[in-house]
Specification:
single chain, 361 residues, alpha/beta, two-stranded antiparallel sheet, 41% helix, 21% strand, globular
């Protein structure tokens, strides 16, 4: 069967890491008898340079015509906050998520055995293990709320960003978290700021209602500041962590770093269909773009999540996971995770290595 994938290579190191993920997908296809075709889609700063806006007309339609979307990275100082909104890459990223209905962002954070020495936590903490799934609401909250900028008579310019959530938005992300927990270790930690925010009080009431429905899943409320502390004190206590958009943005970054490197972490943005958008969580890193030193593992693992969630290819996804584990266990490292006594690999060499391990497994 042929699967059509929309490729958003994006900015900075995006084209490099997407190229390595495609290389690995081709190895999987050859081994298991699948074929993949690719639709190049322009989005981000590169789109601004090409057509004058970061989210060209017809972008969502092109993505909907494909079975899944694989994204590299977008953004960079070249298209910073001084640019009009329609020229900023982040505007395009928020828009594509909204237009494709991708309300749930899944970010696994696991400390791989071969990377144990790269964990910044105390050894006794790291040895307890890290294996959690961050479930972030992706299309609501303050990132999508009404924005205001106005003059005041005595305080100068004042700005406001509105955070809003509906019961429906909270319930659908909550259900996603509980269903995932049933496939993992049966625990949900819901993160909010209910002691201060009205949106969090609504969030907590909806989550409590769902917890009664999913009575087989252990449930707890965690205030966001405590969650940030607990992630570095004892991350092993967490299984599925569900939270709203801004809190999830911050906490998922923290969770990724305690596993050794942000370059190793994939993510999946899902909606009601299987299509989804799959990407690494790192940025575009324009300072190293074009040098063939970026870490492609996060994007390669994102391609594995695509196989699992979009195409129901559990075995093929597992092969990618195992090949990445094997490459790290054999001591291969890109520059960002290089350690004494390990074998250096460029971006393309790491892609070659993982593809060969899949072919020869």
């Amino acid at each position: 069967m042929n699967y059509k994938i929309a490729l958003i290579r994006g900015d900075g190191i995006g084209p490099e890491v997407v190229g390595e993920a495609v290389k690995v997908l081709e190895a999987v296809g050859q081994k298991f008898g699948h074929s993949f075709t690719y639709e190049e889609v322009l989005l981000g700063g590169c789109a601004t340079d090409a057509v004058g806006k970061s989210y060209p007309d017809g972008t969502a339609e092109k993505c909907r015509a494909c079975d899944a979307v694989l994204l590299g990275a977008v953004g960079g100082p070249k298209w910073g906050s001084d640019k009009p909104a329609e020229q900023r890459p982040e505007t395009a990223l928020l828009a594509i998520r909204k237009d494709l209905g991708l309300y749930a962002n899944l970010r696994p954070a696991a400390l791989r055995p071969a990377m144990a020495d790269a964990c910044p936590l105390k050894r006794e903490t790291a040895e307890k293990g890290i294996d959690l799934m961050m479930v972030r609401e992706l299309t609501g909250g303050i990132y999508f709320g009404q924005r205001e900028r106005y003059d005041t008579p005595d305080r100068g310019v004042e700005c406001a960003d509105r955070m809003a959530y509906s019961e429906q938005e909270i319930e659908r992300i909550g259900r996603r978290a509980f269903e995932l927990a049933r496939l993992r270790r049966n625990k949900v930690s819901s993160v909010d700021k209910a002691n201060v925010l009205e949106t969090s009080r609504l969030w907590r009431s909806v989550m409590h209602r769902l917890a009664e429905e999913y009575s087989d899943v252990e449930y707890e409320d965690v205030l966001v500041d405590n969650a940030a502390m607990q992630l570095v004190r004892d991350p092993a206590q967490f299984d599925v962590v569900v939270t709203e958009n801004m809190f999830g943005d911050i906490l998922s970054g923290e969770a990724s770093m305690i596993t050794g490197s942000i370059g190793l972490i994939p993510s999946a943005s899902l909606g009601e269909t299987k299509r989804g958008m799959y990407e690494p969580i790192h940025g575009s890193a324009p300072d190293i773009a074009g040098q063939n030193i970026a870490n492609p593992i996060g994007t390669i693992l994102a391609a594995g999540m695509m196989l699992k969630y979009a195409f129901d290819m559990d075995q093929e996804a597992a092969e990618i996971e195992e090949a990445v584990e094997a490459a790290l266990r054999l001591g291969y490292r890109t520059k960002d995770i290089m350690e004494d006594g390990k074998t250096y690999r460029t971006c393309s060499q790491m892609g070659d290595t993982i593809a060969e391990l899949i072919t020869n497994a």
